[in-house]
User: Fold these one by one.
Assistant:
Number 1:
Amino acid sequence: MAPKFHGLLTKYISYQRGPVTILCGDMRELLWYFLPGSIELVASDPAYETISGGSNGNGKHRRPSGMLAANNGKGGFEHNDVQPEEYAAQLYHVLRDPAHLYWFMNNLGEERTLAAFGAAGFKRHKTLYWAKTHEKSQKPDPNPNRWYMNVVEEILFFRKGTAFAISDPSMLEIFYDPAPRGAARLHPTEKPVSLMRKLIKNSSQPDDVVLDPFCGSGSTLEAAVSTGRQAIGIDIDANYCTIAAKRLDRFLDGCDSRLLSGRQLSFSTGL
Ligand SMILES: C[S@@+](CC[C@H](N)C(=O)[O-])C[C@H]1O[C@@H](n2cnc3c(N)ncnc32)[C@H](O)[C@@H]1O
């Protein structure tokens, strides 16, 4: 099979095993080295703003406060300064035509994301919702909020090119999956593998390449390989690249060896 990826990417590979490749770097730079149409599906939970208020005293900077202070770069994750206009066109470029893209978002970043993705050429199908459930009770597990309790996260569902149906059109637009918590949680904003598997199965085929350009702990990558897809993850934070690699090693150690053989992504040798 002809390589779909530029040889310059090899220096960013922090993990490659069977159908999984993790690249450590800034997705805004790395996406330039992907060939147009090299990716069949993008599913990601990007870094985005999670607070609406606060100022540093001169009114210029927002800062987290109260219970949201965990996401101020100290208790949460460090790199949170990337904006959709900086990468929407590149995502459009690397996706095949037609393709789907799933983008986790909150109401603070929604308008800006819709504008940037629309300008890049994406069409929005609709907004989906992840209702976070409690692992034991399996009931929605809300967080306090003055303007109705928070229990859902938005997933903006876009397409590139001609519309095509998902594999299971009987599926509802709201997903009830437990949020990873406690000692098992690998990332402060980790997404459930069970949810990512549903999105991936609905919008790609076995052996397709699924990209998560903000892969964090690698939940999307595990979901992709567990459904027979190939997976590429990018994260700027070397610590999360290592955490994702360990997750994938654990998963691949225990999986059917057919998932591993002959399915490594290839990179062009020249520049
Ligand atoms: C919301 S988290 C993703 C969590 C992931 N869905 C999971 O389940 O673990 C976003 C991730 O994007 C990474 N990130 C931030 N800016 C980035 C950039 N410019 N390029 C690549 N990764 C970036 C952060 O390090 C963080 O791990």
Number 2:
Amino acid sequence: MSLTDSQYNEIMREYDSRRSYDMRVASDRLREVEDRIPRIRDIRREVCELTGKVMRDTLLNGSDSSDALSEMSSRLHELSLEKERLIKEAGFPDGYLDPPYICPDCKDTGYVDGKKCHCLRQKEFDIAYSQSHLKSYLADQSFDDFSLSYYDDKNASTGKTPRQYASLALKGCRTFAENFHGKGSGNLLLHGPTGTGKTMLSNCVARQVLRAGYSVIYFTAYSFFELMSDKTFGRESGKNDMDYDNLMHADLVILDDLGSEATNRMTVTHLFNFLNERIISASPVLITTNLTMDELMKRYSDRIFSRIIGSYSVYTLLGSDIRILKRYK
Ligand SMILES: [Zn+2]
């Protein structure tokens, strides 16, 4: 990963301070619960005494402690059941005494069994590709905010009305995002004119997938091809290879506004290789484009086009410019 030491240290400091917060909340809640149910405090003391006593006996007397151990563990079990019951009866929510981890998988440490947790990988992506803007932007983009009422439901000159197309796209994207499980989740292509909601839908997908704990890398076509040509021409430090590696290993890659770049033979090859590798490893990609299917075929060759059609769910978005409609609503 192409982070500097200081960027990495900054991330680790964030984890540290989050963990202190987690512990503080947990200990405040423990005090609150113990004040309300004094028996919980007695239970905690008994647990401490029990475990301390067995440890002392084992260390000092060297006694064969298997009996003592099994007696202790059955008593500990009893105490833990009693504690659970008391907390529940007092009306505290489940898990109230657990620290409020943002990522329960790594308990806000960034690592699981010595390997980077998905939350750490995402933080690295966010910094490496300056995508923190994506997160804040995504905060208010959920499928529930996607309103079909902006789409015209009368004009069906292309077979369906714009609203019917949008409804299919919404359903397809939602299903994709809700069932996302990393590799093998399929691919999406959203196409249609500017301002018909493609970017909003892809943001809704990104948000849901991120929330489920998967990593997402977002690229405009322009920045994607810039990275690809850096990889081809960059010879120093191997940085671009690592970037490319990340691009290949992200759980979901979003390629926004395909067709807005200046196309040449090189970009066509890059795009083909990229889509091909992602398909071979069953790694999902979401593409948005203003181009029609005919235009895609003309611009990127039949090879790419047949790749896209064959392994992507394709949705069309049409209609009067929603951004304009919104402004005049
Ligand atoms: Zn984590």
